[in-house]
């Protein structure tokens, strides 16, 4: 129980960082400067660049993902980050990246409130989040990335989503997930439409072919099942964002090499260090986040090496390497 509460809490330092950066946004014009610069705006939709979408409300975690990706990339000048956060965190997130450029990479920061099409009427997931705040807090994984440019050479075989399957692998704790681990098969809609033994796949690091996606009805399927789950009082699957995606992307997933996305660094301390070193992206999914006191000591350095502890905001919020 104590571990659960610790995992669900926001450390004082990270809360402080968000508040101080939000205050900086209102008082410092440089913290409000346009991201990216006007002359770089066309690159936000330039398909010759490598585009990464990062969705989070954790400013420190976002900085680690961006910093590790840029530092590890063989061609950082070809990277474009699209950081998406919530309305509450937007000002602080914008301030961080305005004051801490990631040159030569390009970055934009958007709040969900800035997307005109993203309304409660159009996207039922927002209704679910507003009705059940526990959904929002259930999963909040974090990543560290290595050079990912070869991802753009992966042939998805006409599929939409390149993902690591999680039903097979040496790690029986993390890599043993099938649909039965996520869905309530006593619910008739689930029992009649899904196979309990179907292999699950990992969210958190995915490669999407947007051209192929636009030819499908994935979005409509996703929203339809969310509505059904709301009607069923959220009893059709476990809390989290993965289960409805498992349904919506059914038949549209191409399995990629597990070394592209290593999971479980927040679940157990038996993670193989050599496998961590080989992985392209390491994912601290699970309760033991590296910024929490319950994080695993031998796995934390892979994350902390990308935290800028000399940054004034980080130091003044007493965020220290442990």
From TrEMBL:
GO terms for biological process: cell wall organization. Pathway: Glycan metabolism; pectin biosynthesis. It is a single-pass type II membrane protein. InterPro entries: GAUT (IPR029993), Glyco_trans_8 (IPR002495), Nucleotide-diphossugar_trans (IPR029044). GO terms for cellular component: Golgi membrane. Pfam families: Glyco_transf_8. Its main location: Golgi. Belongs to the glycosyltransferase 8 family. This is Hexosyltransferase.
């Amino acid at each position: 129980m104590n571990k659960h509460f610790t995992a669900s809490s926001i450390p004082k330092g990270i809360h402080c960082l968000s508040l101080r950066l939000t205050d900086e946004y209102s008082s410092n014009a440089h913290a409000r400067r346009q991201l990216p610069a006007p002359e770089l705006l066309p690159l936000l939709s330039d398909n010759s660049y490598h585009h990464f979408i990062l969705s989070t409300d954790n400013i420190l975690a976002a900085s680690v993902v961006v910093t590790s990706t840029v530092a590890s990339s063989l061609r950082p000048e070809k990277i474009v980050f699209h950081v998406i956060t919530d309305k509450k965190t937007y000002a602080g997130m914008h301030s961080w990246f305005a004051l801490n450029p990631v040159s030569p990479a390009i970055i934009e920061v958007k709040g969900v409130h800035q997307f005109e099409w993203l309304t409660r009427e159009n996207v039922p997931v927002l209704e679910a989040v507003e009705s059940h705040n526990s959904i929002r807090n259930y999963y909040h994984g974090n990543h560290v990335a290595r050079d990912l440019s070869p991802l753009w050479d992966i042939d998805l075989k006409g599929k939409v989503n390149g993902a690591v399957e999680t039903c097979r692998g040496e790690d029986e704790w993390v890599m043993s997930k099938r649909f039965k681990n996520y869905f309530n098969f006593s619910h008739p809609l689930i029992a009649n439409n899904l196979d309990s033994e179907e292999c699950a796949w990992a969210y958190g690091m995915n490669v999407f072919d947007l051209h192929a996606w636009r030819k499908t009805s994935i979005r409509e399927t996703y929203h339809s099942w969310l509505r059904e789950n709301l009607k069923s009082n959220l009893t059709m699957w476990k809390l989290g964002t993965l289960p409805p995606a498992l349904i919506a992307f059914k038949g549209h997933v191409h399995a990629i090499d597990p070394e592209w996305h290593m999971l479980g660094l927040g679940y157990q301390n038996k993670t193989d260090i050599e496998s961590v070193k080989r992985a392209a992206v390491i994912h601290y999914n699970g309760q033991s986040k590296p910024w929490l006191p319950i994080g695993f000591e031998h796995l934390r350095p892979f994350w902390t090496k990308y935290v800028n502890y000399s940054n004034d905001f980080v130091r003044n919020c007493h965020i220290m390497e442990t």
